[in-house]
Design goal:
- The protein is an alpha+beta fold and 86 residues long.
- It has a single domain, classed as Arc Repressor Mutant, subunit A, CATH 1.10.10.10.
- The chain is 62% helix and 16% strand.
- It is built from 5 helices and 3 strands, in the order ααβααββα.
- Helix 1 runs antiparallel to helix 4.
- The radius of gyration is 14 Å and the shape is elongated.
């Protein structure tokens, strides 16, 4: 869970998740929304991927990134369980 919270602690990664909530995208498409170099975007994608918040699928010569809704549901469940413990 530590990797998840580290991944969610960065505003850039939150924005990437918000973009991927709408549709899957390539790293190039994601980078168009930021004023940073592509290696920096790749680093953020790697952190999100290592936290299982996104997954990637190779389609032809491009890698498409998608949000992992299952992991987000697990996080929400975990938070609700903590909230309701007395």
């Amino acid at each position: 869970m530590h990797k998840v919270f580290k991944a969610l602690a960065d505003p850039t990664r939150i924005k990437i998740l918000e973009l991927l909530k709408k549709r899957s995208m390539t790293a190039g498409e994601i980078s168009e929304h930021f004023d940073m170099k592509k290696p920096s975007i790749s680093h953020h994608l790697s952190i999100l991927s290592n936290a299982n918040l996104i997954y990637s699928e190779k389609k032809g010569q491009f890698i498409h990134y998608s949000i992992n809704l299952t992991m987000l549901q697990e996080i929400m469940h975990w938070i609700l369980v903590l909230k309701n413990k007395d």
